[in-house]
Structure formats: C-alpha cells, structure tokens
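Side project, low priority. Logging it here so it doesn't get lost.
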Amino acid sequence: MTEKIPDSSGFDFNRVLPVFALVFVDVLGLTVILPLLHLYAAAYGASPAEIGLVVASFPLAQLIGVPVMGALSDRFGRKPLLLISQITTFISFIMLGMASSLTLIILSRVLDGLFGANISTAQAALSDITDEKNRARGLGLIGAAFGLGFIFGPITALITLEITDNLAIPAFTAAGYSFISILLTLFLFKETLPPEKRGIGGTTPRRILNPATIGRMLVNPRVNILLVLMFAQQLIFFGFEALMGVFTLSRLGVLGQGNALFFLFIGGILVLIQVRYIGKWTQRYGERKVAIFALAMFAIGLLLVATTPEQPHLFYVQRNAEYDLREQIASATEAIVGDLGVMLPPDGNNGIMGVVWFAAALIPLSIGAGLIRPCLNSLMTKRVSPQEYGTVLGVSASFVSAADAVAPILGGIIFQTFGGGMPFLLGGLGMAGLVVASWVLVKD
C-alpha cells in the first residue's frame, strides 16, 4: 500500500531517486578532493609536470577500467558492479588520506580510475528503467545530481580545511561519503537488469568500442569534424582544470580554501547555465551557433587566465603559506616533506586585483564548459541513425577520456618549461582557432 505509482509518463520516481542519491553522494566525495589534489602532490615536492601526472593517472586508468566495468555490469547486473566500484572508491580515498608519498597518491587515483565506474554504471541502470519518452528526463536528474555535488563538495572541502587545516581530513570525509553511497546501494537500490536480460542473449547488448568502430566514425564526414572538435576542446579545457590549482598557488598564493571557493563559483555557473539557459539558447539559435559561442567563451576565458597579474591575495604571507602547505599534508604517517616543487609568489605585492581578474576569467570559462559538450553531442546524434546513437556517443566519450589523460601531462610540461601562463595562452589561441574552424567546417 505504501508503494508509489509512476506518473502519467511512466517515470517511476521510486526507482530513479535512489540512483539520483547515490550519484550525488559519489560526486560529492569526488569534488571534495578535486580542488585539493594538486596540494597533495605539491607538498611532496612534485613539479608541475609531476602534478600533471597525478591528475592524469585517474583518466588514464579509466580508459581501461570503465569499458570493462560496463561490460561486466551487462553480464552480472548493475548492483554488484556498483558495489565493487563504490568499495574501491572508498578504499582509494582512505589511501589518499593516509598517503605518505607521491607514489601512494598516484596509486590511490589509479585504483579509483580502474574500478570507480560509479557514474557510468548508474547511467546504465537509469537507462534500464526508463524508455525513449522519459530517458532524457531521467538523465537530466543525473546531471542535476552531478551539478549539486559539484557545488556542495567544494563547500565541504572548505569547511573541513578551515576547521582542521589538514589535507587528510577532506580525503577521509570523501571516504565517508563513499561509505554512505555503499549503504544506499545495499539497502535502497534495486537491481535494474534482471538475469534474463544479461549477457549476449539479453535485450540490451553492449556495442564494444573497438578500434574499427572508432575508425568508422572518424571516416564518417558527418561526424568526424565534431569528434575532432570534442577532443581538441577537451584537451585544452581539461589542461586548464588540471593546472588551475597549481596556477593559483604559484601566481595568487591561494591554498585549498581559496581553490574550493573558486570551484564553488564554477559549479554555480555550470548549474545555472545547464538548468536555465542551454535549452533556451539551443532552441533559439541552434546547437551549432551555441557551440561556436562556447568555444569563443573558452578562448576569452583562457586568455584572461594567462594574463592574470602575479599578485598574491591580501592575507598572503609566503612563509606562512609554505608552513601551511606542509602542515596540511601531515597525517598519522607523519610524512617528511621536502622542498616545495612549486614556486610561491614573493611577499610585498599583495592586493585584490589578481584574485578579481582570475574570478572574472572563470565566468566565460564556466559558460563555455556548461554549453560545449551537450551541443557537440546533440549535433552528433542528429547526423547518425537512431541505431548509432549509443555508438557515436560512446566514441565521443572515449575521445573525452583520451583528452583527459593527455592534457594534464602535456600542460604540466609546458607549465614547467615555459612558465605558468603559457599553457593558458596557447590554450586560448587554440580555442580561437577552433572557433574559426567550427564556423567554416560545421554546418547546420
């Protein structure tokens, strides 16, 4: 008698909301760590290139792990694979909190990347319990959960660092969120893929993204330019995401609390764009023009980042910042931290112009980030048959993952060799080139 009836569209909130909850908790755990990851690496004397390797270790491992976990979930069901994924994510956060070396930090990210296919498996579960009529509505809930996690995760990082001033505590907090997601899956989540629909004989076979499939899409003149654009813009933008923390540290003297505020600012703009504007703009102007606009916003934002004045914030003291960076990494292992691998700005030029300039640069960057991938993916689906939707979107996702793996390493090397502003200057010029290319090559 307590069971709720699905609404008139067939959308069953009883089954969808547990998926929403576990995605929200998973993203919350991840975004507690995201604004701080570079500090773990920098406190162990990592250079910008090595920090890039730390950030790249997760998407590199995902390139291997996500397809395997997805195929296993098709064979054995969503619930057991979600539990395996969440348990390994929980362990990886514990490892990060207890890490006493850069190697252990990288290993914790590799473990999470290999087995942490939480979001993709949750999306597969949502596809199991929705149909073509209401699937977009269900995936919209996943997007909302992701956006909310992106807001509340940095807030949690900010509060825990403010209270404890210890980088291990946010990692353990993220582990706590992961443990909650395990409980949600154990007690609330009901299996969405029954045994008769699993495996080769089931009704939901998985198209494996082998090199032949990717090659077929790359020679398709209707989508190949869009796939190249997807890879190129993600290569440039994720390079910014990966290096943002070390850039603000070296140019503005901003530690974990400040970067958490920056990520919160980005998250707020992303949610605003995706909830209120992307639908209106694409209906009025079309995906092509909105995508070109997004690339232009990227170009403007990155060029502004590259020219951010080297001016530490008002409360910055170099000696205190060095001390705080070393103290924040202290954990039960009492690691001995050597020389910092990132140059901190000197005292004597404190002010607000650097922080204000950088925050202003984040506005066009965040607008572009909220628009570009949905627009490019929508354009791709309009250029293939309905039977190839999954294939083209899978290839698009694989291109994003490949860019995520390359960008931090390449950006870190450029940062270390040519200075902190150079990756963003080159990225801004590259995005400007993509604006011209997309205007000429992408047709409605």
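Brief comment: The chain has two domains: 13-190, 210-314+351-444.
Revisit when time allows.
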